[in-house]
Amino acid sequence: MTPFTRTVKISATRAAGDDRTIDLAISSEQPYERWFGIEILSHDVSAIDLSRLSGNDHPLLLNHWADKQIGVLFDPTVGDDKILRCRARFSRSKDAEEIYVDVMDGIRQLVSVGYLIDEIAEIAPPPDPEDIGDLTKWSPVRTFTGDQFQREMRDRHGDTFARHGQAAARANGEAPPTFLVTRWTPFEASIVPIPADPSVGIGRSTGVETIPQPAAVDQEQPSKPSPIAAPKILVEKKTMETKSPAELEIERRDALQTLGQQYAKYLGPNDLADAIRNGRSVDAFKDYIIERIQTKHTDTSQIQIGLTTREIRRYSLGAALRAATVGDWSQAGFERECSEAVAKIMGRSPEGFYIPSEAFRDFNVGTATEAGNLVPTDLRTDLFVDVLRNKMVLGQLGVRVLTGLTASIDLPRKSTASTIGTVTEVGSASETAPATAKVTLSPKRMSAYVEVSKQAIIQSAIPLENMIRDDLVMGAAVLIESLAINGNGTAPQYTGIRNTTGIGTVVGGANGLAPAWSHFVDLESACANANAEPDTLAGYLINTKTRGKAKQTQLGTSLPMIWQNGAFPLNGYRAAVSNNVPSNLTKGTSTTVCSSAIFGSDWSMAVIGLFGAPDITVNPYSLDATGQVRITINHFGDSGVRQPSAFAKIDDLLAG
């Protein structure tokens, strides 16, 4: 049955001489910098929907917490000074009494308004600098409903687009856009010790901070409104012997905010908000900051340049290639700006041009095998098919991928525990110490090139994105996984899981053996016996030949096949299948026919590191006699295993 609710007003008698009522100024047209840009709340009478506050039953909260109502708001008004004011009457609850006393004593004087955006417009400054301070002289660029605005900002900046702090545009050396909220609905006000919680999108403090103005204009700060003098009532302040949970939570958030501001350059855009929302302690957040300072690697989000969904669709690798080929970027200005933005983040110039990570959209089928097929006759682009490649599966298994690295990083681990022994009552203890080790990820170059005719680049009926991505980028991605599995560790190769010292090894036979149930159990046991007990990220990695053999091999007489259907087809664990796992190994007299199989008790113990962004160079000169252009990709990466005991391999399965 559908539940219903009904709202009623509670009638109460106000005590004479002690109505616990104060006046509040809760918002103004003070510009406010958020992640998406500069926000201004219009305080024209027609812009503010006061229907909710005028009901005289909407709450005065503590820190925007819905379960911490400390009073009620009534009599909202907007004056000629463009300030929204309300009256507030405090509750007689314990929490409200403490806050009320602090307000009367001048300790808590900051107010934040909660509101909903109904309509918002991006605006551009007037040409005459003298008109900057007059909002009526600014020109609208585009207008959104509240829902449209939230969808676009989430696409561009993520779920925390409304958090306060320096606008994302400033990271690219650009002036942040300015937005004027032309219709909005306030629905609560809060007493706050600091600006509103950045992990939510409704809080806004006024008169609390000096808010930076847009970098592109020289606008003076509006004068801060004079504080409204609250009636001076002498109340004996209560002394609290212990702090309430609310006070402890306020202290935690204050401390996290301070740390987040002091060490902002080491944190990602969501780190502070996540710490506040998830209840992380101050000490735990300090440890996290120290870890970030020590590794000094850049988040994936930081190597991104903030392209919107529309801009990602607009980006054309084909246009960039044509521009680099003919040396004229006039028709690829956007692509050149993207490359320069990536270069600014990375701190170095490309050999050719950088591709922003956002521009790597899904790899689409529909690519011809020859560039000449792109010149139109009756071209069916929908029927192109890509070359078949080894499947990439490490991500689904749980291997960690660190992208946007800017320097070599060390991943430390304890390799041997301290040795504790028994001694007699007065015997001497033996010295012991744990041993440590580390895995170092350092840039190792991957490179490949494709040769395309100049005519194909200039005359192509469809963009070259698919062909280049599939031939170069997809090829590089498959190579990364292959090296992470099989790399021999000799420069310039990675050290793959199979060749990592310390992983478990299972032997089939002197000349190899057909896959049997015992082999898969022994792989699991090799990890468990080394105290790497399988967890939720455990699973097998095999090739298609081993899977085929397992589907034809019984567990035992009159028992089902080794390979079971479902999410956990091998020995009750996940199983990923890719021909990056070799099937051409040699054991004894079995030459180039043996297959490998790997079990990981925790696949997150394997790490892939990617350094910087892919660098594309276009060489129209070396093949000038044949009218061809050589397009080369360079990317840098590495891989390693943090805890070798979490993996075991077998390299002599005769799977056919």
Model description:
The protein is of the alpha+beta class and 656 residues long. It has helices at 94-104, 146-157, 245-262, 271-277, 282-295, 300-303, 309-314, 317-326, 333-346, 394-397, 454-459, 465-486, 517-529, 544-552; strands at 21-27, 32-34, 37-41, 58-62, 65-78, 84-90, 111-124, 139-145, 178-191, 203-205, 353-354, 400-405, 409-416, 435-441, 444-453, 504-505, 539-542, 574-577, 585-587, 590-600, 606-619, 628-641, 647-653. Among the domains are: 21-220, no CATH class; 503-609 and 645-653, hypothetical protein PF0899 domain (hypothetical protein PF0899 fold). α3 (245-262) packs antiparallel against α4 (271-277). The longest helix is centred in the C-terminal third of the chain and has 22 residues, at 465-486. The relative contact order is 0.10. Residues 1-17, 195-242, 294-302 and 361-384 have low confidence and may be disordered.
Low-confidence stretches: 1-17, 195-242, 294-302, 361-384
Helix content: 10-25%
The SS-based structural class is alpha+beta
Shape: globular
Radius of gyration: 32 Å
Which percent band covers the strand fraction?
25-35%
Protein traits:
656 residues; alpha+beta; hypothetical protein PF0899 fold
Secondary structure layout plus pairing:
Blueprint: E1 21-27, E2 32-34, E3 37-41, E4 58-62, E5 65-78, E6 84-90, H1 94-104, E7 111-124, E8 139-145, H2 146-157, E9 178-191, E10 203-205, H3 245-262, H4 271-277, H5 282-295, H6 300-303, H7 309-314, H8 317-326, H9 333-346, E11 353-354, H10 394-397, E12 400-405, E13 409-416, E14 435-441, E15 444-453, H11 454-459, H12 465-486, E16 504-505, H13 517-529, E17 539-542, H14 544-552, E18 574-577, E19 585-587, E20 590-600, E21 606-619, E22 628-641, E23 647-653
Parallel strand pairs: 3-9, 4-9, 12-21, 16-23, 17-18
Antiparallel strand pairs: 1-6, 2-3, 4-5, 5-6, 7-8, 7-9, 7-10, 11-21, 13-14, 15-22, 17-20, 19-20, 20-23, 21-22
Helix pairs in contact: 3-4
